[in-house]
Each structure stands twice: as structure tokens, then as C-alpha cells.
Amino acid sequence: MFYTFGAHTPVVHETAYVHPQAVVTGNVVIGKDVYIGPGAMLRGDWGGIRIADGCNIQENCVVHMFPGITVVLEEEAHIGHGAIIHGARIGKHCLVGMNSVVLDRVVIGEGSIIGALTLVTEGMQIPPRSLVVGNPGRIIREVPDDMLVWKNKGTALYRRLPADMHGGARACEPLREVPPGYDAAAGEYKSWKDPGRE
Hints:
This protein is mainly beta. The protein has one domain (about 1-140): 3 Solenoid (UDP N-Acetylglucosamine Acyltransferase, domain 1). Helix content is about 10%, strand content about 30%. It has one helix and 20 strands. It has one helix at about 145-170, and strands at about 1-5, 10, 15-20, 25-30, 35, 40-50, 55, 60-65, 70-75, 80, 85, 90, 95, 100, 105-110, 115, 120, 125, 130-135, 140. The strands form two sheets. Strands 1, 2, 4, 6, 8, 9, 11, 12, 14, 15, 17 and 18 form a twelve-stranded parallel beta sheet that branches. An eight-stranded mixed beta sheet has the order 3-5-7-10-13-16-19-20. The longest helix has 24 residues, at about 145-170. It is globular and about 55 Å long. InterPro entries: Hexapep, Transf_Hexapept/Carb_Anhydrase, Trimer_LpxA-like_sf. Pfam families: Hexapep.
């Protein structure tokens, strides 16, 4: 759902996909090939939100800010399920892990990875390609090349998802039994710790 707030109506590129159960309010600009999952809340009421091309904001994420602040997600930022971004800037090719919280005036440098359940405290400045974990978050090492390649493959899946959703997702009635050939899809992308990951 989209809501005008004050003088601002959300702006969404035609190639982006915003799930009908997401809520986008006010001063929000969403770029090309962006995926916004169900349950996500983007509140551009007291400030602005700028989502660059190729980003994804997954299910049940919240993006908000203190008055007068603009939240920025640079190109191909990847925001995992349930994360909260509040008044921060997320650099290009960053991954914010599931259920992490990134607080006000944080700047996360390009290619950084924020581990799941991490709290990035107010005002932290994260250098490029930092791996951050914990509560409070701390930098434990530089993101290695193979981890960044792995992250970018996952983001590429999400970058294709808006077109797939526009082309094939529709409301339906559930089936009452499992039809033949209804097996799980073969995955081309594995978790970081999966022994079969290439």
C-alpha cells in the first residue's frame, strides 16, 4: 500500500516490485529492479528514504528515521528479513543480516556485511568491506573476496525477483493436495556455511 504524507507521494520505478502487503509512506524514492517484500514498512514521514537500483528490502523490515534525516541504500544493498534501518546510510553491495538493527547516523562502507542479529550502534562509521557481528556490533575482520562474490550472487537473485514477480505472481486459492512433481526447486545459491557451496 502507498500513502501520501504531506507534500510527498512515493516514487517507484516501473521495474521495481513492492509487495501489496508492504507499506510505503511519503518521501520515498525506489529505483530500478528493487524488491520490497511483504510486511516491509518504509516510512518517509519525518524524513526521506532513497532506495537505489538493485536493492532488496526483505519481509518484515522497517526503514525509518528521526526528523530531517534521509535514509540511503546505495546500489545493490541487501537488507535481510526482519532488519531495522533507522536513519542510516548503507553502502553499495552491503548485506545487512536478518533481524539486525542499524541505528541513526551509521554509515556502512561499500561491500560490508553485517551479521544476523547484529546491533550497529548510533553513529558507527563502518569502513568498506568490514564484517560486523554482535551486540553491540564490532568489526571482526575484512570481508574476503570469496564472501563478497557469494553475497553478490545472492543479491543478483533478488535483482531478478521483481521481474519474476511482475511476470508470474498472482493471488490464488491453495491446492488441497500435493500434485505430482511438486518437489522443492533445486537451488543454485547455497548458504555461506553449506559444504556444497562453490
